[in-house]
Amino acid sequence: MPLSTTSPPAGTEAAEIRRRLVADAEDRIHRLLDLETEKWTAAGGRPAELVASVRRVVDAGGKRLRPAFCVTGYLSAGGDPGSGDDVVRAAAALELLHVFALIHDDVLDDSAVRRGVETVHSTYAGDHLRRGMLGEPRRYGEGVAILAGDLAHVYADGLAAQLPPAARQIWTELRTEMIVGQFLDVLAAAEALMDVQTARWIAVCKSGHYTIHRPLTLGAAVAGRTDLNGVFQRYGALVGEAFQLRDDLIDVTGDSGITGKPTGLDAARHKMTLLLALAAEKDDRVRKLVGAPAREHDAAERLHTLLRECGVVDDVERLIQELVDDACAVIREAPLDREWREELIEMAHRVAYRDH
């Protein structure tokens, strides 16, 4: 990929170029889904329903963080915004991979709502009931959702296969870390593991690497630079942990009208979040409630209340600030032009201090 021969644009102009390339990635996704819909409609129509399920998740919105970090990695590494086909392809692949992860995550968590709309497995379970189909509605809905997620993964891999070799290697590492992190998340919930280090490692895999570090290095690799991997890894681990802690806080204190899903879901499912592990370390009542048997139907509600009362929320806010400060210190010393150092500092604050 040719590097830009001009200086990086300053301030809002840099952000505008990033927004344009992220929008181009969304257009790429919609063109791909349009072609797939046309192909499968011509083949009989019913297969196109699966493509429509992927499209509904894409169209439900989202923060587009991974494409934004990917494009930022590309531009900050000197990538030419006028020759951005590969980075648009990489950003589109990241968003489709995220769609795959969301659809499967909703099955794993048995979530009925995502981004304010019904989840794929809930939609198809309801369809099964309304139509009086054979078999179990829940199994049918989950089966369709797993296949819809797999289809999004195939589309993502198809886009990533066209990237340069160094970028493809990062793509493989990103997918592996994401899936291993998800497995550990499921395992920790089942075993009621309340270990801060394990929870932190899961946060780094699921947020640090998957959301920030790997998208940044993927974009930089498309621009032909791998020397920024160390800087982006340190920054990504710090901002990723802050991102996950904010996610945990939103589940405890957030507004469901803004988040698009009910609060208290992590407590209800006894997910071993980093916030929950820190709370269990701080207050033994939390540890006891996490191990409460399922028959204690009010345990989740009591746990949610206790998390708000035990002081861990203030502790986590302070930890988020420390993580963001450390991430900004890493970027201030990075071998990047000032404009992109400022952009990455702004992005760290944006993901750590959000309301959804």
Give the name of the CATH architecture of the largest domain: Orthogonal Bundle
Total DSSP E strands: 2
Number of helices: 16
Oligomer: single chain
How many domains is the backbone divided into? 2
Report the principal-axis shape. flat
Keywords: Magnesium, Metal-binding, Transferase
Family: Belongs to the FPP/GGPP synthase family.
Protein name: Polyprenyl synthetase family protein
InterPro entries: Isoprenoid_synthase_dom_sf, Polyprenyl_synt, Polyprenyl_synt_CS
Short structural description:
Helices cover 75% and strands 1% of the residues. It has 356 residues and is mostly helical. It has two domains: 9-163, Farnesyl Diphosphate Synthase (Orthogonal Bundle), CATH 1.10.600; 164-356, Orthogonal Bundle (Farnesyl Diphosphate Synthase), CATH 1.10.600.10.
Describe this structure in words.
With 356 residues, the protein is mostly helical. It has 16 helices and 2 strands. Strands 1-2 form a two-stranded antiparallel ribbon. A hairpin with a 2-residue loop joins strand 1 and strand 2 (117-118). The longest helix has 32 residues, at 11-42. Mean pLDDT is 89; it is low at 1-10.
Which properties best describe this structure?
two-stranded antiparallel ribbon; Farnesyl Diphosphate Synthase; 2 domains; metal ion binding; 16 helices; disordered N terminus; 1% strand; flat; 356 residues; mainly alpha; Polyprenyl_synt; Polyprenyl synthetase family protein
